[in-house]
Write a structure and sequence with these properties.
Blueprint (H helix, E strand, L loop, with lengths): L1 H19 L6 H18 L3 H12 L21 H7 L2 H9 L4 E7 L5 E4 L12 H7 L4 E2 L3 E2 L6 E11 L2 E11 H10 L2
Length: 190
Amino acid sequence: MKYLRKLSLVCLLLLLASAKIDDNYDEQKISDRIDKEVPVLMKILENPKLIEKIKSQNESLPKILHIVSNKNWKNYNGSSDVIKFLEKNELAKELRELMPFYVSEFFVSDMNGKKVLFFEKTTWFDHSKLEKYLVPKKGSIWKGKMERDESSGIHQVQVGLPVRDKNKIIGVATFGLSIVRLEDTIESTH
């Protein structure tokens, strides 16, 4: 019993210590850096194959995704056909090669909030009711708070951007930007 108390105390201290990591970052510098990087990220979203994939899914949800919902999303693992369809496709591989080194997470949602593709499985399949989806869907940039991402475990800031075909919004892309790597870009520019 004594051992379990000590172990619980150690776990609690580690948890508190990891929560304090975010306090060490200059949020304004990070926010300013993100603003400078947005045009780079927007350029990636002009990829013609990405635009066609989103448009296609907006017209008709792929059959493999018909039964997927937030309720059953946690049941899909990396070897499932659904995850392979969204993560292990040629377009995802191509986009991964184009990403700046500070991108720690990336996923794209269609106009209904359903995933079109991602680099790693997200916490939810459908983001249609989340601010990170709703704000860019209306044409604005959404910036989240600095946090430890639940799905990747990395300290990051999520940025939601509209994906456009010409001037029409066709989907939303969310980038997770590693705080440590963004700080490296700030340091290297000074």
